[in-house]
Amino acid sequence: MRLRDHVGFAAAQLLRNKGRTTLTATGVAVGVFAFTSIVAIGRGLETALIEQLTDDESPTRVVVRPGFGALPPGSLDAAVEGVTDPAKADRLRKAIAKRRRGGPGPLRRTLLTPDTVEALRARPDVADVRPLVVDRFELALGEHAEEVALSYGVAADDPRWQRRVIAGQPFAVDARGVWLHEFLLYTWGYRTDEEQAALVGREVRLGRPTPAAGVGAMLDAARRSGVELPVDPRLVEMLVRMNAARPPREGDTAEPPAPAGVTLPLLGVVRERVEDDGFEMVEDSFSMQADLFLPQGLAEALFLQDATNLTRGYTAATLEVADAEQVGTVERGLRREGWNTSSVRSVLERLTRALALITVIVAGLTSVAVLVAVLGIVNTMIMNVSERTREIGTLKALGASDRQVRGLFVAESGLIGLLGGVVGLAAALLGSFPGDWAARTAIQRMTEYHYPGSVFAFPPWLLLAALGFALVLSVLAALGPAGAASRVDPVVALRDE
Questions:
Q1: Which residues of 258-296 are buried (b: 16+ CB within 10 A; e: fewer)?
Q2: Quick one: pLDDT at residue 179?
Q3: 10 Å Cβ neighbour count for 204?
Q4: Over the chain, what is the mean pLDDT?
Q5: Are 493 and 390 in contact (CB under 8 A)?
């Protein structure tokens, strides 16, 4: 018998029992549908998250933050002398190191000062370093004033920032002036683009905040977000007195510097970020609450004029690695030196590992449905063998070999698995359309973000794997009943019925 004969005979036998065949194939289809859909959702979520995290992100960028430094090797050996257990000695060294390196910001051992920024820039594997300048000013424009306005230094060569300028001139590297956020001007009563554009060219005065500016910044940010915190003004006065009475710390000047003032022209108005701008994790996170934007060079110059800023250093800096393949090596080296670092590469590595683990676990659970369907195939094949004993005997009496009889039942099971697999894949592909609509609707409702992509991803390997999985399991399920059919004695079979 040729393969075509096996398949034709098996198909004819399945059509004789349409109800049983349909039920068995439906079980396979349900299992394949669940398996394929779950894995496709996992792949789709991974793709969506990677797109969101890498939107306008540089693959060679490493964000560096102040850390607690690295103690010289062997410097703590004397402190744990007498501890014979190596594991315990290692734990004690870590405990001692944490206590030596702890403390408030100014006491940290690795700070992003101008000197350390230059040292990072001089590394052979680094192309450039840019401090992220977040500062606070008292801001005044005519009769309007803000007690605390957060500022951010903008890289003038970033097209994302240029697109956000809606009035005045674009950002320039050597510009000496300020850009204000449209929402700040809105709170001052300038409601339209025309009214805000008319302010361009006027003078803006910047000064250093009062000692309680930290509390003022917090209250102001909350107020702008629509949250009115019930803070007693006497609390702010108490914090001012506590700040004035605290003992001097290392790096403090003998006397607090007088608030410096500078007058700069208003060069433009910056709009709020919109969805079409994308999301740049570093820039948008640090500039989220800013009302005042300065060119990077001017922002650094004003930041370093304040003695407190000089003592504490920058909050963070972005480091561009010369070769994308060296990002992981550079990041590990910086951490060994005591810096805190993060990068899109490291975030993606952790994210993909977590999503892969979740997908494998859930796919393993859904594959149980396929295994249940396999049991259904086993049951169907056993019933077929018991009901077709005389038929098997006739075939063997006509010269069919054990191998050919076994092949007939394996072909029947394979056709059931193939039919169920194709139907299950078709259901998963068709179900992804209403599934995408429901997912995008839920995302829009919960986050007010319109996600244009699909939450399902069907790579070719997934379709082939799901179909092959169903086919292979169906064939394996038939081996036992098919073997029993091949061992039927034709004389006994013909006499039995």
A1: eeeebebebbbbbbebeeebeebbbbeebbeebbbbbbb
A2: 96
A3: 23
A4: 79
A5: yes
Cβ-based neighbours of 14, under 8 Å, separated by 6 or more: 21, 412, 415, 416
Residue with the two structure tokens 């920024």: 117
Question: What pLDDT score does 325 carry?
Answer: 81
CA count, 13 A, side-chain hemisphere, 275: 7
Q: Where are the domains of the chain?
A: 3-55+349-496, 73-107, 134-313
Judge whether 37 and 428 are in contact, CB under 8 Å.
yes
- Nearest of 46, 31, 23 to residue 466 by alpha carbon: 31
DSSP letter, residue 110: B
Predicted confidence (pLDDT) per residue in 163-192, tens digit: 999 999 999 988 999 999 999 999 999 999
Q: What are phi and psi of 141, to 5 degrees?
A: -135, 105
- Tens of pLDDT along 135-155? 999 999 999 998 888 999 999
Helix 18-53, helix 3-16: angle, nearest 10: 110
Q: Band the pLDDT of 252: cuts 50, 70, 90.
A: very low
Locate 443 and state its tokens. 């995302």
Residues 58 and 342: beta-carbon distance below 8 Å: no
C-alpha dihedral, 160 to 165 to 168 to 174, nearest 10°: -30
Asked if the model's pLDDT at residue 107 lies above 60, the reply is no
C-alpha dihedral over 248, 249, 253, 255, to 10 degrees? Answer: -20
Pairing type for strands 144-154 and 292-295 reads parallel
- Tally the residues of the chain: 497
For residues 242 and 234, what is the distance between their CA atoms, to the nearest angstrom?
Answer: 12
Which residues, 6 or more positions from 316, have their beta carbon under 8 angstroms from its beta carbon?
A: 63, 64, 65, 112, 131, 132, 286
pTM of the model: 0.59
